[in-house]
Amino acid sequence: xxxxxxxxxxxxxxxxxxxxxxxxxxxxxxxxxxxxxxxxxxxxxxxxxxxxxxxxxxxxxxxxxxxxxxxxxxxxxxxxxxxxxxxxxxxxxxxxxxxxxxxxxxxxxxxxxxxxxxxxxxxxxxxxxxxxxxxxxxxxxxxxxxxxxxxxxxxxxxxxxxxxxxxxxxxxxxxxxxxxxxxxxxxxxx
Amino acid sequence: xxxxxxxxxxxxxxxxxxxxxxxxxxxxxxxxxxxxxxxxxxxxxxxxxxxxxxxxxxxxxxxxxxxxxxxxxxxxxxxxxxxxxxxxxxxxxxxxxxxxxxxxxxxxxxxxxxxxxxxxxxxxxxxxxxxxxxxxxxxxxxxxxxxxxxxxxxxxxxxxxxxxxxxxxxxxxxxxxxxxxxxxxxxxxx
DNA sequence: GACCTCATTTAACAAATGTTAAAAAGAGAT
DNA sequence: ATCTCTTTTTAACATTTGTTAAATGAGGTC
Lengths: 190, 190
What we know:
2 copies of one chain form a homodimer.
Chain A: H1 2-11, H2 16-24, E1 26-31, E2 36-38, E3 46-52, E4 55-61, E5 64-71, E6 76-77, H3 80-85, E7 92-95, E8 99-105, H4 106-115, H5 117-143, H6 146-156, H7 160-163, H8 166-173, H9 177-185
Antiparallel strand pairs in A: 1-8, 2-7, 3-6, 3-8, 4-5, 4-7
Helix pairs in contact in A: 4-5
The first copy, chain A, binds a DNA duplex (30 and 30 nucleotides) through residues 146, 165-167, 175-182, 184-185.
């Protein structure tokens, strides 16, 4: 529980009391590679803190999987649509490795938001943080080429090609796996 | 002030008192087409509510402008980077038409967040809402082709081609204006 | 109306990416 | 080491998009 508490505090400083209230509504889960945290169409109200392991979110488009998010240690997995807008999520989130997670339920969290201003501000900060992350994924897509994004990906997560299939990375980058192979083959040739 | 109050309440229901506190820290501004709400590199702490008019956000990439956001009546303009992360924003936001806006300052808002739980929850909802909007722009980019996105754009904003230059729309879609012309010419031909 | 300016479309060619299929490389199990 | 299954790379060709430049269109001014 130590690491997760640090993760929570890093978002927004909390008093002991608020931290106790938050940890009281969360519990630990351990799941194997291949386990689905969410499935498309659900209105899941769970918020997962990924302590150990790797995950990806994907969407079915014309019967093909399009991966659009990777999560690693320290990341948070939740369906924004289901969580914030009450709409069914369009994403499936799959564990790529055996994982340790901490889980909270939105309903429990919601009642803390209404009663404790510190936790309400923590929740605000959580949303703001996820917003920055989402905007960065958006920017990356809008401003950079697939090659630039691939280089930045292996720069930020040097072991990603060991942990994630290249097919998933290609679909994350919005290109085919053939094109990704060409990019990987062409290093140095600009 | 009527319309803007409705806009604020639509995010999250507020008591009279909270609404008064919020409206006390905002003021109206009127600007002409071409006025810049933000310039790239600034750490602007302003939040604009666009009551009337149109705007776009763009970023300079290799000396070229890349438009990545359009705002119309009812939309909110703020630099997430500057506002939430304290980093300099990378975006310039330009008015595309003469506009009426309401402006708040983040510092004033911040002190209300710390004192009034209702306003803290309103701020949470504001961030959650912007998160959904940003995710939708991201999804649109990741899951749909430029042609599909163009069709959905003119479907949602039927007058957008009257209000926004096609060059801006093309860069928003991530294609050149020549390709956009080809898409526009090819209606019906699948 | 003729002229000017800016926005948009069209044309011709070059470059990049997609598609399909086959070959090569890796990882596990026997 | 061999076999099998999966992942990744390569090849050949088709399609799409980019690039540059010219042509057309639309609005405003004299």
